[in-house]
Amino acid sequence: MNKLIIGRYLPGDSIIYRLDPRGKFLITFYFIGIVFLANNVASYGFLLLFVLFAVYISKINLGFFIKGLRPMLWLILFTVLLQLFFTPSDNPMWHWGIFTLSTDGMRIAAYIFIRFVLIIFISTLLTLTTTPIEISDSIESILKPLKVIKFPVTQVALMLSIALRFVPLLIDETTKIMDAQRARGVDFGEGGIMQRIKSFVPILIPLFVSSFSIAYDLAIAMESRGYKDGEGRSKYRVLSWSKRDYMSLIVMLLITIILLFIRSY
Amino acid sequence: MEIIFKNLTQSYEANSPLEGLGLDDVSLTIHDKRFTAIVGKTGSGKSTLVRHINALLKPTSGTILVGDREITPETNNKNLKPLRKNVGMVFQFPESQLFEDTVEKDIMFGPMNFGMSEADAKKSAHKMIELVGLGEEYLEKSPFDLSGGQMRRVAIAGVLASEPETIILDEPTAGLDPVGRKEIMDLFKNLQEQGRTIILITHNMDDVANYAEEMVVIHDAKVKAVGKPKDIFNDKSLLTDDILTLPRSAAFAQKLAEKNFSFPQLPITISELTTEIKRQVHGD
Amino acid sequence: MENIISIKDVTYTYPEAKRPAINGLSLDIYRNEWLSIVGKNGSGKSTLAKLIDGLIESETGSIIVDGQEVNEKNIWEIRSKIGIVFQNPDHQFVGATVEDDVAFGLENQGIPRDEMVKEVDAALKMVDMQDYKTRDPQSLSGGQKQRVAIAGVLATKPSIIIMDESTSMLDPNGRKTVLNLVKQLREEQNMTIISITHDIEETELSERIVILRDGEVVQKASPKTIYDMGHKLTNYGLEEPFSSQVAYLLKDELKLPEGYLNEEELIENIWKLSSKI
User: Fold this and answer.
1) Where does the ABC transporter domain lie (chain C) (predicted)?
2) Mutate to test the interface with B, among C165, C171, C201 (most CBs of B within 10 A)
3) Type and span of the H or E element at B230
4) For chain B, what is the domain count?
5) In this predicted model, what pLDDT tens digit does every residue of C127-146 receive, in sequence order?
6) SS3 of A188, please?
7) Is B257 an interface residue toward C (CB < 8 Å)?
């Protein structure tokens, strides 16, 4: 569980940390979009430089980002190999049965690889520098217009933030229950499929029971502190959009223009 | 079974920027058939330590010997069952491990995983439910219909049912009322007297004084002291550094010492304390 | 003495339970007193707390809190007067950071943000946790978590605080800091404190102790009177105070005064006996 870097917040301080989460959230999605505009060595190189620069000013060790690739490693490898050996070409360097190796294939495989790196690095940058609660605040803020169609935005946002708060608690609980059952002789991941599925029953039932009891306790605690249904509440946490957030949008605009220029060059 | 830790180090998230030490070069012997208490502040590494004894955690470096079974960083996950059968573990709030639809089945779960026949497991369930102070009539109930204290007892019965030689207890009485706590502690003391090895993690120094023969003090992932409770509680260096607190009897004696009483060694149990007070008042 | 809470003939049975958790219970709680409620696991202590706060609804009788009957209509006002600190520190955090959590009750009351910021700071200062304002609650120790929970309760300025076994999951250090905090609040604020506990030592500073068994009040008296029950306390799942245990073992040979002595009194008496000889 601890190996996942994507989705984890790393306490720290730098300009990237201080950006408004809404801006970061939108920029991340926007950037993932424009990655698909890159079409040549120069444009990929340019985007890569930009991402590395962003990593640099975030003051976070590059190692975290490289570790972030790990869970996706098989997917990346599979896709890259697919491109490498299956890109049709008129002048292959090597050919055997259905496999073709060509400079085109190598180039496309390299692009795909860089594309993965770009997308994973930029999303890791978002989650490492933005607390889950800031992300849920951003979602609330971005979804706000939906209030018009009676979508319960505040309730959904509270639900989301509570769910996020309970993820580490439930991970702890799961580890604890797994340890307890292993101590009682359960082997996870041994035997046939049926055996494996069966070995999860002693985890799932206690986990359900304790999730319900945590949820019940929390509901009681919330009610005792006067929580009704989300209406008529004020908000302690405010997001503030500042000069540097405008700056970050301008930077994105410049990136787009430069990219479009390099692309057609 | 004797348990020997040799230069055991446990680091979590090794090679990552979040690396930290759970245990730092621990060497320690836990004697066979004795009652050993492990104390230390929250987060000092007590729970990490005991999780090595049944290989729920494996050392990052160093080894641990449990009876004739050696666990090293290279030990794989196969064939751990004989070890785990012999080392029963009662976790903190063990009631959260219950999952079967009847108490009986839940108690039989461990023994049957370890290869006991159904008939023997059933016999064991009947024996253990009595041992933990609930009657046989509880066997047919659903564990989820019981009170918190009863669930705790069922969970303990489920661990004892595999008849482990060594029993590890991680704050087994947390949240129970004083009478319930004493019953559970007496139960473990009895098991030890019948020839089991008991390892107890606790914050309650009175329990240490009343039940344990040996104690281990863990501080900042290291073993800070090992010995008889009486000697350890009289080690001033541990008390001044706020690593350890005193049992109530010793604290009481300390206050008497501020008057005209003197204790070459602080008494740690209430009977030691009162015997000593009587002796000093009568002036013999 | 003026009642802040009057409970009359209240009964409550949990769904699917065979016997009631609270059984025809009546109890008066005085304004500004510190009341301890003790009893075995399952004696109905926590259920009583939930009934007072209207978190569950009694089947019979009535509960009046600060002049208002606990019912559907008054419930939100009553809840704003009562703050509860629960047993498990991990199961009561709503906010992602310490300050967010303290603000939760204020947000529910719709307090404007500027005011909230001040209240949150003030509450955190009262529990001496202001340096932890932006921390994730998960990174705190048990005792610190409970102090934050108390701050969350204090922020809305309740007149009654219920500590529902709030120290039972803490280590000795955590327990000590929380108890000292309650003591200090008691001295500095005009508050009624109801503390539900198993720990006899925690009841020492309260003005009255109520013993529950099977959902009924079996005793209510000053700590001294309750401690005088000596070994009989174990019938209610409790432990005899340590000084009584010591006194009991000394009595066969030393002439100690009758009745309960606290630790200091006992030491004083033992000292007198020894210096006479």
Assistant:
1) 5-239
2) C171
3) helix B229-233
4) 1
5) 999 999 988 888 898 999 99
6) coil
7) no
